[in-house]
Amino acid sequence: MERVDVVYVYLANKTEDQVLMVKNFGAGDSYYTLPGGAVEKGETLKEAAIREAKEETGLDVSIGGILSVSEKFFEDRNHHAVFFTFIGEVVGGHLEIAFPEEIEEVVWMDAAKAKEYTFLGEQQGKGPTIPYVLHKQI
Questions:
Q1: CA 89 to chain centre
Q2: Fold adopted by 2-118
Q3: Which residues form the Nudix hydrolase domain (predicted)?
């Protein structure tokens, strides 16, 4: 199986009662996820999270610590995906869909409903994060 690293960005509004979600076109039905996607070759997790959030939502984000790490095996794709979910904050841009062939909509969703799609458990963006550290080569 091929390992695939995937990043997501948890973006909540100021009152934390809404979470930014994207509705992706699927092979069958459409489905909601946090903004995110696969890490490209030569890209750090943080760089990928910032890029993916911009590509999928039109928003510029700053990235904080990691909320969760999870994984899933996709037998049909022969992938072992490892998901890194970062806490993020909107710092600019405006909502737009850059890839309408992939993204059906971008929506601020009620946080309780978004919980069904984020796989963060009870933590749901409010819990402690672990630091993200990029070790520079010496």
A1: 12
A2: Nucleoside Triphosphate Pyrophosphohydrolase (3.90.79)
A3: 2-135
The dihedral over CA atoms of 19, 89, 71, 43, expressed in degrees to the nearest 10, equals 140
pLDDT in the model for residue 81: 93
Q: For residue 116, how many C-alpha atoms fall within 13 Å in the half-sphere facing its CB?
A: 6
Residue pair 120/16 in contact (Cβ under 8 Å)? The answer is: no
Q: Which of 71, 96, 102, 105 is catalytic?
A: 105
Edge-first strand listing for the sheet containing 103-110: 31-33, 18-24, 103-110
Position 87, amino acid: I
Token pair belonging to 35? 């903004």
pLDDT at 121: 62
Q: CA 15 to CA 20: how far, in whole Å?
A: 13
State the Cα–Cα distance between residues 61 and 52, nearest whole angstrom.
Answer: 10
User: Can you tell me the distance from the alpha carbon of 86 to that of 46, in angstroms, rounded to the nearest whole number?
Assistant: 8
Whole-number pLDDT of residue 138: 65
* Span 52-102, pLDDT tens digits: 999 999 999 999 999 999 899 989 889 899 999 999 999 999 999 988 899
